[in-house]
Design brief:
two-stranded antiparallel ribbon
């Protein structure tokens, strides 16, 4: 999808993760193995952030543009070991995403907090439960 589109695709997400990890540079062809390594984790990562009540990505090929940068950080952190990050780079990527290493609790990473703030106060479209007396 176009960069100026209000939505981004899962392919855009994977390519940006590889770029931020330093695996992919400008003008370089994408390695199929690297692309598949990150791509296969997307469903479980989306389910995890939904379970943590951070945000719910209903369609991986229509990711809201406002969520994109934070989702890149989360996917990078969750895929960091798989794409070869280690040491301090690994710790920084995880804690910038969902968190969970050292003093940062799971769901308290920078990107996770940002997504919670972006989603706060938005309609959930869930049925309203009430009790009649």
């Amino acid at each position: 999808m176009a960069v100026n589109s209000p939505y981004r695709s899962s392919s855009d997400l994977v390519l940006e993760v590889l770029s931020r990890a330093g695996v992919l540079s400008i003008g370089q062809a994408v390695d199929v193995d690297d692309f598949q390594t990150v791509s296969k984790n997307l469903d479980s990562i989306f389910r995890k952030i939904a379970g943590l009540e951070i945000c719910f990505v209903a369609d991986a090929d229509n990711i809201p543009g406002t969520w994109f940068s934070d989702l890149v950080d989360i996917v990078l952190g969750e895929s960091a070991k798989d794409i070869g990050l280690s040491g301090q780079e690994y710790i920084d990527a995880v804690n910038k995403g969902l968190g969970g290493l050292g003093p940062v609790d799971v769901g308290a990473g920078a990107a996770a907090k940002s997504l919670k703030i972006i989603s706060r106060g938005r309609p959930t479209y869930e049925p309203l439960r009430f009790v009649n007396y």
